[in-house]
Amino acid sequence: MVGVLVGFSIIGFVILIGYFVERFGIIGEGAGRVLNRMAFFVATPALLFTVLAHADVSVLFSEFLVTIVCTIAVGVLLYVALARLFFRTPLADTVLGASSATYVNANNIGLPVALYVLGSAQYVAPVLLLQLVVLAPTILAVLDVTTRGRASFVAILTQPFRNPMILASLAGVLVALSGTTLPDPVLAPFELIGGAAIPMVLLSFGMSLHGQRLLKAGTGRRQVVAATVIKVVLMPIIAYLFGHFMFDLDGAELFAVVAVSALPTAQNIFNFASRYDRALVVTRDTVLLTTITSMPALLVIAALLA
């Protein structure tokens, strides 16, 4: 438990530093976006490659990932049911709301939590691949059809393979599957660059929190609260039930699958909403509120399962 608290303290402190950097304008306007792009296109792909090249393949393709898939499916169904019964939102808004309730921040928050709390990034890597290769293209396809009346399926299908994190992850998985041990001179540059990924994503995330206001009247507060409760409270419980009783996970794997399910909503969902100009406030507020509430939830999970 002490190690878990230390891990969260490290993450929280770096995020706080990022917030104050933006608050006092230390490195200028737009610096957070530049930092985030550097992490996305350069540092994080290097980190994912080195992690997955050494990963236990049995974790990448196991009951762990199936548990995550089942948990996401139930979370989506819960939100859609609430939307149909109470919110009466258009289909595009419902899709974005359901995504806000289930699409986890496996990059900015998930990787640091995996490294400092779970002990290995290999628990987050399968979720990252699932979301980027399967879920994101599916969400974009539905949004294309519902907002434009058509979809560029070639662009949607090829989009994952234009993502540097996916390409680096696939390369790492291939190395792990082949059983190849890469020599140190080959891995060393990737490890050096990848070491910058976590500080950059935490700093840029902290910078993005400055100036945000939560739950303004008339902006879909019920949808935000519903998505937040599903994401932070119900998904970890669902993951525990599936993992423990259906897929016989225990120990570190059970702790990891529940903790990953409690991660906050990914900022990607707000990016999708911005691209299609739908549910902007709902997705933004859900990202921020789940980020705030996920830390106490993760501490409770750690106290019970770590």
Describe the fold and architecture:
The chain has 306 residues and is mainly alpha-helical. It has a single domain (2-305), classed as Up-down Bundle (Na+/H+ antiporter like fold), CATH 1.20.1530. 77% of the residues lie in helices and 0% in strands. It is built from 15 helices and no strands. The protein has helices at residues 2-23, 31-53, 57-60, 63-87, 91-102, 110-118, 125-148, 153-158, 164-178, 184-194, 197-208, 221-246, 251-261, 267-276, 280-305. Helix 2 (31-53) packs antiparallel against helix 11 (197-208). It starts with a helix and ends with a helix.
Give the total of domains: 1
* Class by SSE composition: mainly alpha
What is the subunit arrangement here?
Answer: single chain
Give helix and strand order, one letter per element, not per position. HHHHHHHHHHHHHHH
The coarse overall form would be globular
Question: Mind telling me which CATH architecture this is?
Answer: Up-down Bundle
Helix content: over 70%
Q: Uncertain segments of ≥5 residues (pLDDT<50)? A: none
Largest sheet: none
In what range is the share of β-strand residues?
A: under 5%
Terminal Cα span: 7 Å
What is the CATH class?
A: Mainly Alpha
- Please tally the helical runs, counting DSSP H or I stretches of 4 or more residues: 15
What fold name goes in the CATH topology slot? Answer: Na+/H+ antiporter like fold
Quick one: how many beta strands? 0
Radius of gyration: 19 Å
Mean pLDDT: 83
Ordered list of secondary-structure elements with their pairings:
Blueprint: H1 2-23, H2 31-53, H3 57-60, H4 63-87, H5 91-102, H6 110-118, H7 125-148, H8 153-158, H9 164-178, H10 184-194, H11 197-208, H12 221-246, H13 251-261, H14 267-276, H15 280-305
Helix pairs in contact: 1-6, 1-11, 2-9, 2-10, 2-11, 4-5, 4-12, 4-13, 5-7, 5-12, 5-15, 12-13, 12-15, 13-15, 14-15
